[in-house]
């Protein structure tokens, strides 16, 4: 399948809203579509890496062969040393490490060239991958900030419950700052409702989200699924375990909507997301264009 390469940062300040789960599953869908997928595990929890290799094997990867090498001057960030094939054909990972904690600094704009470590790395591997998905930790420190400065698009998984909405304004401010000052190409791909169940509270939450953010909310949502839980336990994206099950079709629908949204988002002028920033849009657009 031919596709213009894209990089998506999976960001939310809230924990447990399925950033890693969605990234893991989407990698399977894109790989089965024939895209060459690169996963970047920017989370010091290294959950995405564990999702393929398990905790013991993940801990056994020397830190100089993980994403830490992008930040530590003592390491050689040569992509050929760092890129790790997964057991799933078409999916490569830049593995995560717990020691990334040392670099996940809380005031990212004060970290100088560390802000663009991932951006530099992705420039070096340009042409080798079609879909790059960056899994981020549940905060907006240096790791997520690196993703926002390196990505073309941001996707925000949100859990269909009230708590899931609390971090959104913080995320919007970070995205707006990245867009205005550092990454004029950054575009919002959308909010994806995750861990969705057939509950009245989830219906109400989703409706509220759509009222607030309109077309920024993905048409499809990602349901809580027994098959996905079993795939996680097997350390495989569902497409590599049960490609015909309903959950695999749901993941495909998300992947297809991403591919539909990308060209539209690319051709959209820069737009600020947070209300306060929208007030000064005319002025700030000049900065971003
Ligand atoms: N579609 C799904 N169906 C069932 N369980 C899921 C699904 N997606 C994620 N989960 C489970 O929900 C929990 C939270 O998901 P996940 O770890 O992806 O969240 P996260 O946002 O990455 O968390 P963190 O902020 O800690 O990184 C995990 O136990 C995961 O296995
Ligand atoms: Mg995670």
Key terms for this structure?
alpha/beta, single chain, 289 residues, seven-stranded mixed sheet, Rossmann fold, binds magnesium ion, disordered C terminus, 43% helix, 12 helices, binds adenosine-5'-triphosphate, 12% strand
Instruction: Give a list of the ligands.
Output: adenosine-5'-triphosphate, magnesium ion
Compute the CA-based radius of gyration: 18 Å
- N-to-C SSE string, H for helix and E for strand: EHEHHEEHEHEHHEHHHHH
Number of DSSP helical runs: 12
* Widest sheet, order of strands: 3-4-2-5-1-6-7
What's the total number of strands?
7
Distance between the termini: 31 Å
Indicate the CATH architecture. Answer: 3-Layer(aba) Sandwich
Determine the CATH topology: Rossmann fold
What's the CATH class label?
A: Alpha Beta
| Percent range of helical residues | 40-55%
- The computed structural class is alpha/beta
- Mean of all residue-level pLDDT scores: 93
Strand content is: 5-15%
Going by CATH, what is the homologous superfamily?
Answer: P-loop containing nucleotide triphosphate hydrolases
Concise synopsis of the structure shown:
Helix content is 43%, strand content 12%.
Care to describe what's here?
This protein is an alpha/beta fold. Helix content is 43%, strand content 12%. It has a single domain (6-288), classed as P-loop containing nucleotide triphosphate hydrolases (Rossmann fold), CATH 3.40.50.300. The chain has twelve helices and seven strands. The longest helix has 21 residues, at 246-266. The model is unreliable at 281-289 (pLDDT under 50). The structure holds adenosine-5'-triphosphate and magnesium ion (MG). The site of magnesium ion has 5 residues, from helix 1.
